[in-house]
Amino acid sequence: MSVPRFWREQQNRYNLIGTHCTTCNTYYYPPRILCPKCRREGKVVEHQFKGTGTVVTYSIIRSASDQFNDLTPYVIAIIELDEGTRLTSQVICEIDEMYIGMPVKRVFRRLGEDGESGPIFYGTKFVPA
Amino acid sequence: MVGIITYGAYIPKYRIKTEEIARVWGGDGPAIARGLGVYEKSLPDMDEDTITIAVEAARAALARRSIDPQDIGAIYVGSESHPYAVKPSAVTVGEAIMATPIMTAADYEFACKAGTAAIQTTMGLTKSNMIKYGLAIGADIAQGEPGDALEYTAAAGGVAFVIGNDSPIADINLTASYSSDTPDFWRREGLPFPRHGGRFTGEPGYFKHILAGSHLMFEKAGTKASDYDYAIFHQPNAKFAQNVAKTLGFTPEQIKPGLCVPYLGNTYSGASIIGLAATLDIAKPGDRIFVTSYGSGAGSDSFDITVTDMIESEEFCRDAAPTVEQLLATKKIVDYAVYAKHKGKIVVMR
Ligand SMILES: [Zn+2]
Question: What is the pLDDT of residue B200?
């Protein structure tokens, strides 16, 4: 990922900043500036998600690209945040303890790095709550 | 009065036993564990480093008391394992707790006492009303070369203190420091592991500076050991801390709540102040706490602290973040193979 792109999305990744359409009460992460349901009628405001949610489904990654190989086996899950929107994230958990419906909460972790001399990317992952 | 507004700690969940490290290197595990008074040490997950630990500790502090992060005017992160040689950990922490951009920030390094140096700096800035709150953090993923004596104790963890004047949960009555150029421990730029200067480690380093710093504090405050309810000393192992406490006239009961090293290891910049956090976890209004840190190279910072009524008020919720005891109890023991995998990943080139 390019440094400028990561930097622009940093607040979203660090603090789960998304948006909320107050017209139809729908939450968006990643943020949407225009509500697709309400179009021009929608009033969209910034929203910080609480960072708690539930695992909807998951898969176990046993072989990954070089950068993530040290982490294997690890879990990638679709998480429904309590406010009602879904996102994909790693869940840091022993793989045999993983289950659908697991309550999870946000943590701050390294997401990756651009080689040994490049920048380190930080952001949000999830752990069992 | 200037003091601690709130605090929070973080310890990664992985542990390795002293005996398991000794097994690999052919040492007498039980004897080494007894000699050091260290039975387990923490190690970070593959995707944890000093910055992630500092962020988790800072978020724990903010969970306990509702303060506006925008009122935090300064962030200092003390560590000897900052992920970058050049690029401050403190701004990532600031961004992750939404304290940026109207704030000052910097990283500190002073072996195991960079965290207490950060507390002193934020005391000065808040006491002089230059800022409302300052955030002082000590965090490390400490490194010991495989097979070196330090490998038995070098651990991971961190703690964050919000310092300010606005009804603190604990007043910091006084602070005193003692520093000198002593070659007991160092790590050269670009090298992954520290070295220690054999005969300088004990007497001329740790004991001389902690005793001098502590005596300075007794003089300044007009106190003696028995005037305090609790005391915390830098804890590279349990034996050093127990001996220095005894020499100063403190009892084993006074240092018990803050002696975390037996099942945590030495968290370097976090070591003495995780002990302070563990003591604040159980402290009552009126309790008086004595703290002296030590950083190789070398120096000691001493603090005289009185817990206030605020610690039991509705404005402060101790239960909103895990106590040090709870963090220590949340653990997964790993063997040397898993430890080595984590370690390979966590070597920090500066
Ligand atoms: Zn809408």
Answer: 62
pLDDT tens across B271-295, in order?
999 999 999 999 999 999 999 999 9
Omega before A30 within 30 of 0, i.e. cis: yes
Reported ipTM? 0.94
Ion ligand 1 nearby residues (CB, 5 A): A 21, 23-24, 35, 37-38, 42
**Whether the predicted pLDDT of B348 surpasses 50:** no
Give per-residue pLDDT as tens, A28-38.
999 999 999 99
Structurally, what CATH architecture does the domain formed by B171-310 represent?
A: 3-Layer(aba) Sandwich (3.40)
**How far B335 CA lies from chain A's nearest CA (Å)?**
15
Q: From start to end of chain B, where are the E strands? A: 3-10, 14-17, 40-43, 72-78, 104-108, 133-141, 156-164, 170-179, 185-186, 195-196, 230-233, 288-292, 299-307, 332-333
* B9 has a pLDDT exceeding 80: yes
Q: Which of B48, B109, B112, B151 is catalytic?
A: B112
**CATH code, A3-128:** 2.40.50.840
A75: enclosing H helix or E strand = strand A74-81
Could you give the residue range(s) of every CATH 3.40.47.10 domain in chain B?
A: 3-169+324-342, 171-310
Structure tokens at B272: 């003495």
Please tell me the CATH superfamily of domain B3-169+324-342, with its number. Thiolase/Chalcone synthase (3.40.47.10)
Closest CA to B170 of B286, B308, B278: B308
Q: Which two tokens stand for residue B255?
A: 């240092």
* pTM greater than 0.80: yes
Cβ–Cβ below 8 Å for B48 and A109: yes
